[in-house]
Amino acid sequence: MRTPMVADGGAAAMSMALFRQIGTPRHGGIVLVADHAGNAVPDDMALGIAPELLERHIGIDIGVAGVAERMARFHEIPAHLACLSRLIVDLHREEDHEKLIPTHSDGHVIPGNIGADRTMRIARFYHPYHEALARWLEQAQPSLIISLHSFTPELASNPAETRPWEVGLLYNRNEAPARRAIRLFEAQGLTVGDNQPYSGKLLNATMNRHAEAHGRDYLAIEVRQDQIATAAGQQRWARLIAEVANGVALRPA
């Protein structure tokens, strides 16, 4: 497992892992990317929030790291996992997106991000992450990329919103792989969201950049967090996603 390090941000700053990679990609195989798999905060930065918030959905995609690790180790789908919390820089946003450095998240104010040095964070975290991911994918030339995320069953800021889907498939222009995956997940008796709980037409930054811009097929998968909050759930979903991804990769368009 390779773990590149972030460049030192100053005399008081401690280097930290920006991402980690599990497994070795097979040329033309399937790979997995998880932009929100970690909740690390650099030692020289303070968000000004209660530490337990980093364990909630505003700080990390709950369950994703466990699923991705099992997919890499037991289903031969290598993974590129971010270690940085989305509250420092949201790696799954465009560089100029207003929420790249969130000052509010699901009803919580993030004081340390108000007036943050945007240019510094982009140079220190955002660019190195995406440059490393680009090199990894260029070497792998995958037939299919899985972009794995999880979503909370309800938002604290909008508890009346119903989120019945156990899994959702997001897509922007290239929708054919997602539509095949929707059918395969539904065949397992699952309630599947078609561009739900978010639309990939609006939120698809990493796959727009690393997949659609290069003509690569992908599955942007959102699993509801209660499905993968336990080791048993992570094992089940690692198998389900691996089976669906292999089915999509092997079937003609």
From TrEMBL:
Superkingdom to which the source organism belongs: Bacteria
InterPro entries assigned: N-FG_amidohydro (IPR007709), UCP029730 (IPR011227)
Name assigned to this protein: N-formylglutamate amidohydrolase
